[in-house]
Automatic annotation (TrEMBL):
GO terms for molecular function: nucleotidyltransferase activity. This is Nucleotidyltransferase family protein. Keywords: Transferase. PANTHER family: MOLYBDENUM COFACTOR CYTIDYLYLTRANSFERASE. Residues 7-160 form the MobA-like NTP transferase domain.
Length: 195
């Protein structure tokens, strides 16, 4: 039987290092968040986490449920907990992606392949051997994500589980935190369009 995986894009942050809302900044005419949402096409179940005041800023496709994080000021951990609570019971795993990472759709197919073949507790993109986002967690370890606190994400859980790092191209791991990052993402998008 083919494993069913849920995917959730976490996009309830406050863009503190970016002038304005980074998720609505454009890359080749499309908001950063919409680039990030492309990765959800690879999943059996999909959702996005937003703050209530940002839900009207974005045109989220109707087939993607919007989970509203009313405790976003507590950090990324609250979005993670919301995603875990949303995860359908029939899902074998949950992938967490960040809304400010516009090119994760290039990484997800390989992560899904490894997850389905190896059936680990988790599989993550990696840079120089170090696990980074995005991450797919097995259902059997999702309860650990309820213990995360603050704005560090799920990193504290990594040491408690068996995680397979999957080396990924650095340019696909870019996250847009500054205007300089946005310019880099624009250059990457132009390069991808040339293929």
């Amino acid at each position: 039987m083919v494993m069913k995986i849920a995917g959730c894009v976490l996009a309830a942050g406050f863009s503190k290092r970016f002038e304005g809302d980074k998720l609505s900044a454009n890359i080749r005419g499309l908001p950063v968040l919409n680039w990030s949402l492309k990765c959800l096409d690879h999943f059996d179940f999909r959702a996005v986490v937003l703050r209530s005041e940002t839900t009207k800023l974005f045109k989220i496709p109707t087939q993607i449920p919007v989970l509203v994080n009313t405790k976003a000021e507590r950090g990324l951990s609250e979005s993670i907990k919301l995603a875990v609570s949303w995860t359908p019971w029939e899902a074998d795993g949950l992938a967490l992606m960040l809304g400010d990472m516009p090119f994760t759709d290039r990484i997800i197919p390989r992560l899904l392949e490894v997850f389905r073949q190896e059936k680990p507790e988790a599989v993550a993109a990696a840079f120089k051997g170090k696990p980074v986002n995005p991450v797919i967690f097995s259902r059997k370890v999702l309860h650990l994500l309820y213990m995360v606190e603050g704005d560090v994400g799920a990193r504290n859980v990594f040491s408690k589980i068996n995680i397979i790092p999957v080396e990924s191209q650095e340019e696909y791991l870019i996250d847009v935190d500054t205007e300089e990052d946005l310019a880099k993402a624009e250059a990457i998008a132009r390069k991808l369009a040339d293929f």
